[in-house]
Design goal:
Number of strands: 12
Number of helices: 13
Shape: elongated
Order of helices and strands: HHEHEHEEHEEHEEEHEEHEHHHHH
Length: about 375
């Protein structure tokens, strides 16, 4: 039935109506793609920003509440104030939600390997790669948090000591030593390339700081507002500690998301305006061509409301047909945009279909405004050929 109505619509004035239909289809395709991108852009941007690593840090609030670590420990003099592992980590686990991608405590020391100073980071090695998803790892991943026999070494460390995955590395610190097997070589493109990553317990034992940590990092998905809200709730559960979002990451994510949404909304309004102008111009020319038809219908007793209703039905079918075809094309366009911009597909949102079709029908109806001029047509003048 719909196809038959569309065929009747195009059969009378194929040229002009085809131009209008192509304009509506094009507008609907772009609007549908942009709206699909709008509904999915938050998730995509969040995924992209998680590649930047942690966005919340928990650190000691002040030295008085820092810890009960021995004051003569050399690690405390060269390192930030420490926190009690038992006081912080259970609260972090209790407050963990589905938005928390990864979390890990850290202890940093400067140990020696082959009499050469080297930065050693003690952490949960199974979570470290989730916090730093851009790491390129040569070798095997360490999946067990309790593995105290293996480590990762940075690319520069591997070159400096001529070691590779499967090799051995011995670390010395204040008379304590640990001999570890190198599971993999990390290529991070930053300071991590000059570090060694060991199990948290290994670093604590080397430094004589069992049960103590320096800070905790978390990677939390969501908008800047939701990340800030989670940090606030976490701070309330950890009084005396400093819980803060990494401002550069969260603010950049929020600003980019706002600007992207503003750009999409502006483009939708612009495409709607251009489509309406194209349909308006086409319908204005069509109204002049149909003066004779309107004059004849008036002479036969047709009321103006009935005549305008027929034309409105015509442009309504035009808008619905163009909107439906454009929505299908828009899904394909959104997929192309997703792969080009984010390197992944955009999830189709089927609620876009009725919204886009309704917008196209409204645009087509606006384009029918010139048909009001047909109400001034006088049958006698038209039938005389004037």
């Amino acid at each position: 039935m719909f196809g038959r109505l569309l065929w009747k619509l195009l059969r009378g004035n194929r040229g002009r109506l085809t131009v209008a239909l192509v304009a509506v289809i094009s507008g609907a395709a772009v609007i549908s793609a942009l709206l699909n991108l709008e509904f999915d852009v938050e998730r995509k941007l969040t995924q992209e920003f998680r590649l930047l690593g942690a966005n919340i840090v928990i650190s000691p609030g002040n030295p008085a509440q820092a810890n009960d670590a021995p004051s003569n420990s050399p690690a405390t003099s060269a390192s930030p104030a420490l926190m009690s592992e038992a006081a912080v980590l259970p609260q972090v686990d209790r407050m963990r939600t589905s938005d928390v991608v990864a979390s890990a405590p850290y202890v940093y020391i400067v140990a020696r390997a082959h009499d050469t100073p080297i930065v050693v980071a003690g952490t949960w090695l199974d979570e470290a790669r989730k916090l730093e998803p851009t790491w390129k790892l040569e070798g095997e991943a360490i999946a067990s948090r309790g593995d105290a026999t293996q480590c990762y070494v940075g690319r520069d460390v591997a070159r400096q000591f001529d070691v590779a995955p499967g090799g051995q590395l011995e670390l010395d610190y204040l008379g304590r030593s640990a001999r570890l097997t190198i599971a993999g070589v990390v290529d991070a493109g930053g300071a991590e390339d000059s570090q060694v990553f060991v199990n948290l317990a290994v670093a604590q034992k080397l430094a004589g700081l069992e049960g103590q940590i320096q800070f905790v990092q978390l990677s939390v998905s969501g908008t800047a507002a939701s990340i800030g809200g989670y940090a606030g709730r976490l701070a309330n559960s950890l009084p005396g500690y400093d819980v803060r979002p990494i401002r550069q990451v969260t603010e950049a994510e929020g600003n980019l998301l706002s600007r992207t949404r503003l750009l999409i909304a502006s483009m939708v309004v612009l495409i709607l305006a251009l489509t309406a102008l194209c349909v308006l111009a086409t319908m204005a020319a069509l109204a002049m061509e149909r003066r004779a038809d309107v004059g004849l219908m008036k002479a036969l007793g047709g009321t103006m409301s009935r005549i305008v209703g027929l034309f409105l039905a015509e442009v309504g079918v035009l808008g619905a047909a163009g909107g439906l075809i454009g929505c299908v094309a828009g899904v394909a366009l959104a997929q192309w945009m997703g792969h080009r911009v984010f390197g992944t597909s955009i999830t189709p949102r089927w609620e876009i279909f009725p919204l886009t079709i309704a917008l196209m029908i409204a645009v087509a109806m606006m384009g029918a405004l010139p048909l009001r001029r047909l109400g001034k047509v006088k049958p006698a003048v038209i039938l005389r050929g004037e």
